[in-house]
Amino acid sequence: MKVLRALLFAVLGLVAGYVITATLAILLLPATPADNGGLEMFVFFGLAPIGGVIGAIAGLLFGLLRKRPPAG
Prior knowledge:
mainly alpha; 2 helices; 0% strand; elongated
């Protein structure tokens, strides 16, 4: 059960890390009107997967190291 919980947190961390990294990069990186989508492709295929991997590692560690609350 602990492994299943760790995998669930890893997937949730992956999705959250990807979305947060992509959103912040699109909002913070300057774009020009004649960019032809180059910046967006760089963000979604270059930067956001890095955030996803970091989020997955963080979620996996959180799932493995998290202690259960006391029953009762």
